[in-house]
Structure formats: C-alpha cells, structure tokens
C-alpha cells in the first residue's frame, strides 16, 4: 500500500508542475495581450488624428532622432496595416489563452482526482 501512495504522490507532483508551467505561460500571454491592446489603442488614436488632417497638411514620422516628412496617404496606409497586424496578433493571443484555460481546467481536474486517490491510499494505509 505504501507504494501506491508514493506512486500517486509522484504523479500528483508531476501534474502540479505541469499546472504551474501552464499558469506561467498563461500569465505571460495575458501580459502580451495587454501590451497589444495598448498598441492597438495607440494606433487607433493615431489613425483618427490622421483622418482629421487635410491632404495639404504635413505629416512627419520619427526615424531615430530625425523627423522625416511623409505623405498623408502613406501614413494612413502604414497605420492601417499596423492595426491589421496587431488585430491578427490579438486574435492569435486570445485563441492561445482560451486553449491554455482549457488545459488548466484539465490539470485542475487531474489534480483533484489524484488528491482523492492519494488521500484514499493514505487512509487505507492508516487503517491497516
């Protein structure tokens, strides 16, 4: 009986380690999503400001320490493409987060089952 409890305890520890790794990855993805949300909002604001300009207005883009003149249409196009890219990244990130949540739920279920098995094995051991 002692062997059963030890085997279950090892499986429990392995499952716990997998759950912790999953949580760590989940937290990393949540931070990434927050960063992408910030970039998305910033670019949306830039696009709204660019749409307020007239075609005759000058637009400058910062390249390192230098401001370089850029055509308004080109700026609007570049910001639009950036928003598309960020949206794709947000979608990927959200899908991965959903998958990780499902994975974590499975780990929780496995942990509960293993804990019950471990407690059962220990109580059998004590009753003998």
UniProtKB/TrEMBL annotation:
Signal sequence extent: none
Similarity comment text for this entry: Belongs to the prefoldin subunit beta family.
Listed name of the protein: Probable prefoldin subunit 6
GO molecular function list: protein-folding chaperone binding; unfolded protein binding
Subunit structure, interactors included: Heterohexamer of two PFD-alpha type and four PFD-beta type subunits.
Coiled-coil features, chain-numbered ranges: 83-128
Record InterPro entries: PFD_beta-like, Prefoldin
UniProt keywords, alphabetically: Chaperone, Coiled coil
Alphabetical list of Pfam families matching this protein: Prefoldin_2
One biological process term in Gene Ontology: protein folding
GO cellular component term, pick one: cytoplasm
């Amino acid at each position: 009986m002692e062997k059963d409890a030890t085997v279950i305890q090892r499986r429990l520890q392995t499952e716990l380690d997998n759950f912790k790794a999953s949580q760590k990855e989940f937290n990393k993805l949540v931070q990434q999503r927050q960063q992408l949300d910030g970039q998305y909002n910033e670019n949306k604001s830039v696009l709204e400001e660019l749409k307020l300009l007239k075609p005759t207005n000058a637009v400058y883009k910062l390249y390192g320490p230098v401001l370089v003149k850029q055509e308004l249409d080109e700026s609007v196009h570049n910001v639009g493409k950036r928003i598309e890219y960020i949206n794709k990244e947000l979608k990927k990130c959200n899908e991965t987060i959903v998958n990780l949540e499902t994975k974590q739920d499975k780990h929780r279920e496995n942990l509960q089952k293993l804990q019950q098995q471990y407690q059962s094995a220990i109580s059998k051991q004590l009753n003998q």
